[in-house]
Write a structure and sequence with these properties.
By secondary structure, this protein is α+β, with helices and mostly antiparallel strands. 64% of the residues lie in helices and 13% in strands.
Length: 467
C-alpha cells in the first residue's frame, strides 16, 4: 500500500507541477486558454508521409502566420479602419449625381377636370433632368469629436494586433515546451520501467532459488506494472499535447512531426526591477492600446457634450432640365440650415452620463493595467528565481535518488535486506525525475512570461537562453 501511495503521489505531483507552470504565465496568457482564438489556427499545407522536423523558432513563425488570434486581430484592425473612414465622411461634403428621363401622360377627366374645348388627355410628353447635389455639415462639433475618437480606436486596434503577436509567441512557446516536458517524462518513465524489470527478474530468481519470499516478487511485479501504467498515461499526454501544439501553429492534425530543440536551462541573471518595470511600461502594446482606448472614450465624452451646440449644414443642387439635352436650361437650389437643439434635455443628459460612465470605466481599467504591468514583471522575476532554485535542487535529488537506488539494489542482491527498500528507492527516483522535469518546464515558461511582461516577446530566444 505504501508503494502504491508513493506512485500516486508521484503522478499527482508531476501533474500539479505542470499546472503550476501554466500559472506563472503573464496575464494575457489567460486570453490564450482553452476556447480562446489563440488556441486555434487556420491549417495550411498538405499532409506529408515524412515527419516534419520542427524547431521552436519554426513553430513560432508558423504560429505568427496561421494562428487564429493573429488573423482575427487583423480583421478587427480592418474594421476599426472602416469605422474611422465612415466617421471622416460625415465631416466631408457628399456629392451625388442623378440622371432622370421622364415620360408622362395625364387623363384630366380621371382627375375630375372637364373643360369644354380642352383635350381630356394630355401627352405623352417628357423631360430630361441631369442634376448634381451636395450636402455638407459645415459646423458639427459632435461629428468632429467622434471622428477623433475613431482615430484613437484605430490606433488601439493596431497596437492590439502587435500585442497579439506576443500572445502567439507565448502560447506557441508554452505548447512547445510542454511537449518537450512530455518527451522527457516518457524517457524517464521508460528508464524506470527498465529498472523495475531488472528488480522484478532479480526478485523472481531469488524466490525460485528459495532465498526470498513470494512477497518480494509480488511487490516487484506491482511496481513494474504501475510504472507501465504511468508510461501509458505519459505517452497519451504526449500525443494530446502534440495535437494542441499543431492546432496553435496551423499544422494539419494528420501530419506527424518531431521536435528538434531540447528544453534549455541557463542560469538567468536577475534584472534591475525598477529598470525592468520602466521598460515594460514603454514597450507593452496592450498597455499602449488601453491608453488609446481611454483617449477615444474622452473624445466620445466631449462629443456627447457637443450635441448641445448648433450645427450648420449646406444643401445645394445644380441641374440641367428640359425636353432634351439640346433644349434645356440650368437650375440651381441652395439651402443653408442652422439647427439648435431646444428641447432634448433628457436625451442630451442621458448621452452625457453614458459617455461619462464609459470614460470612468476606461480610466479605472487603465489604472489597473499600470499596476498589472508592475505585478507581471515582479511575478515573472520571482518565478524565475524560484524555478531556478527548484531545478538545481531537483537535479541534486535525481543524483541522490539514483545513488540510493543503487545502494538498495546491492543490499538486496547480497541478501542484506528485502526489496522493500528497492521499491521505495525506485519511487524516490521517479518522484525526483518528475520534479526535475516539472521545475525545468516551469523555469523556461517563467522566462517566456518575463519576455511577455517586458513587451519583448519577439526576443524570446534571448530570455530562454539566459541573459
Amino acid at each position: 500500500m505504501a508503494s502504491n501511495s508513493l506512485k500516486n503521489s508521484s503522478i499527482h505531483g508531476f501533474a500539479c507541477a505542470l499546472a503550476l507552470g501554466l500559472a506563472v504565465l503573464a496575464p494575457g496568457f489567460a486570453a490564450a486558454q482553452s476556447g480562446s482564438p489563440f488556441q486555434g489556427s487556420v491549417a495550411s499545407g498538405e499532409v506529408s508521409a515524412q515527419p516534419v522536423a520542427l524547431s521552436l523558432d519554426e513553430a513560432v513563425q508558423r504560429g505568427l502566420k496561421t494562428n487564429l488570434g493573429i488573423l482575427l486581430s487583423g480583421t478587427q484592425t480592418a474594421a476599426a479602419r472602416g469605422q474611422q473612414l465612415s466617421q471622416l465622411q460625415l465631416l466631408l461634403p457628399s456629392v451625388d449625381f442623378s440622371a432622370r428621363e421622364t415620360v408622362m401622360q395625364a387623363d384630366l377627366a380621371a382627375q375630375g377636370l372637364r373643360i369644354p374645348g380642352f383635350p381630356t388627355i394630355i401627352g405623352p410628353f417628357g423631360y430630361t433632368d441631369l442634376r448634381a447635389s451636395l450636402k455638407w455639415s459645415l459646423v458639427d462639433v459632435a461629428s468632429l469629436r467622434n471622428y477623433l475618437a475613431s482615430r484613437h480606436n484605430f490606433a488601439a486596434a493596431q497596437l492590439s494586433a502587435q500585442d497579439a503577436r506576443e500572445l502567439v509567441i507565448l502560447t506557441v512557446g508554452n505548447a512547445y515546451l510542454l511537449v518537450l516536458a512530455d518527451e522527457t517524462r516518457i524517457q524517464s518513465v521508460e528508464a524506470q520501467v527498465a529498472t523495475a524489470k531488472v528488480s522484478l527478474d532479480q526478485a523472481s530468481a531469488r524466490h525460485q532459488a528459495g532465498t526470498a519470499p513470494l512477497l518480494d516478487e509480488l511487490r516487484a511485479r506491482v511496481d513494474s506494472q504501475s510504472l507501465e501504467q504511468q508510461l501509458i498515461v505519459a505517452r497519451n499526454a504526449f500525443e494530446k499535447d502534440k495535437l494542441a501544439l499543431a492546432r496553435t501553429i496551423g499544422l494539419p492534425l494528420g501530419q506527424s512531426f518531431t521536435l528538434t530543440d531540447k528544453a534549455p536551462f541557463a542560469v538567468f541573471d536577475q534584472l534591475d526591477v525598477d529598470a525592468a518595470i520602466h521598460q515594460a511600461h514603454l514597450n507593452r502594446k496592450d498597455l499602449a492600446a488601453l491608453v488609446e482606448q481611454a483617449k477615444a472614450t474622452q473624445e466620445q465624452r466631449k462629443a456627447a457634450t457637443a450635441e448641445r451646440l448648433p450645427t450648420i449644414k449646406a444643401d445645394a443642387d445644380y441641374g440641367d432640365i428640359g425636353v432634351n439635352v439640346r433644349h434645356s436650361h440650368g437650375t440651381v437650389d441652395a439651402t443653408g440650415t442652422l439647427s439648435v437643439p431646444l428641447f432634448k434635455e433628457f436625451e442630451l443628459r442621458g448621452d452625457a452620463q453614458v459617455a461619462q460612465a464609459q470614460l470612468d470605466t476606461k480610466q479605472a481599467q487603465l489604472s489597473d493595467m499600470n499596476a498589472q504591468v508592475d505585478a507581471d514583471v515582479r511575478d515573472a522575476l520571482l518565478d524565475i528565481a524560484s524555478a531556478q532554485k527548484q531545478v538545481e535542487v531537483a537535479r541534486s535529488s535525481v543524483e541522490l535518488a539514483g545513488e540510493a537506488l543503487s545502494e538498495a539494489q546491492q543490499r538486496y542482491a547480497n541478501g542484506v535486506s528485502d526489496n522493500l527498500a528497492v521499491s521505495q528507492a525506485e519511487q524516490s527516483v521517479a518522484q525526483a525525475n518528475d520534479q526535475y522535469v516539472a521545475s525545468l518546464y516551469r523555469h523556461n515558461v517563467a522566462k517566456l512570461s518575463l519576455a511577455r511582461a517586458l513587451g519583448a516577446g519577439e526576443n524570446y530566444k534571448i530570455y530562454l537562453g539566459g541573459k
